[in-house]
Amino acid sequence: MLILAIETSCDETSAAVVKDGVEVLSNPIATQTEFHQKYGGIVPEIAARKHVELISPIIQEALDKANITFKDIDAVAVTYGPGLIGSLIVGVCAAKAIAWTQKIPLIGVNHLEGHIYANLLISNFQFPISNLFPFLCLLVSGGHTMIVHVKGHGNYETLGRTRDDAAGEAFDKVARVLGLGYPGGPLIDKLAKEGNPNSIPFKHPMIEGEYAYDFSFSGIKTAVVNHVKSLQSTVNSVQKKNIAASFQKVVVETLVEKLIKAAKDKNVQTVSIAGGVSANSELREYAQKRADEEKLKAMIPPFEYCTDNAAMIGGAAYYKFKRKDFSPLSLKPLASLRL
Questions:
Q1: What does CATH list as the number for 2-118+305-322?
Q2: Which of 145, 234, 255, 301 qualifies as a FRET site for 213, CA 20 to 30 Å off?
Q3: 8 Å CB contact between 296 and 165
Q4: Residues spanned by CATH 3.30.420.40 within the chain?
Q5: Coiled coil where (predicted)?
Q6: Which residues are annotated as part of the binding site for substrate?
Q7: Which value, to the nearest 10 degrees, does the dihedral of the CA atoms of residues 283, 287, 293, 297 take?
Q8: Confidence check: pLDDT of 159 > 60
Q9: Binding site: which residues?
């Protein structure tokens, strides 16, 4: 089964052809980073206009790389939320047009669900994919930080979520304070490798009791701002490296320790990470290390499936197709959409 998938929830324009839910035949991604860098963040209007320019060429590129045409497609899938409404409209309209002209099913996919299914694109499993369930997924990105109990295809329970800043948002804001630029996550990850992660005693923002699986990163962000102000001078390169390393260590440990706690409490044997922040090298290493220590299986998707991409949408759509969970041509994009 071949599914053409489209992803335009934020500032990446992507299309992919996915075979049988796991084999990625193509997955071109056009990034807009250079157009947003000077503003220090994503400008929704610019993002939407760029999607309009790029959507048709990207879809054609996906088909060409997969060596197929529209006639070979069994269904078209698209992210319909959550995300920037202007960006979502472009992808949804393109998918509707393809579904209508080719007379094939339209499958709307929740962007968050797509990130979870990026884990199933790791490789060809040597056992039925159904054997993976249940597992826990730490979903971390610029807009979301949550722990999801994945009980089966389309069956999710959100155990915890951020109460304020998402982890990716905190990375961007700290990078801005340090004058590193945008996007902040990769820049802090690179800089942190040269710093001492134990040089500054930032506190772990842990929440206990009934909301033990929830997150809060506004405190650590404020702690970094206050630390920079306390230096009373221009922050030199060594200080920047130490701040980046200390900040990243606290965030990574907080994320992973809550995931491990949830796995032990729920007696779940498999944990995974997903979302743009899952490309962070320290997060990937620490998640694998703690999973090994706790005798848990860890699923960590390849880098190319961590950030926004259409392949993960196609992967999720395959299982919706099997359930005949199709969307009407009246499908509306939704800026806010819970899992």
A1: 3.30.420.40
A2: 301
A3: no
A4: 2-118+305-322, 127-300
A5: none
A6: 139-143, 172, 185, 189, 280
A7: -160
A8: yes
A9: 111, 115, 139-143, 172, 185, 189, 280, 308
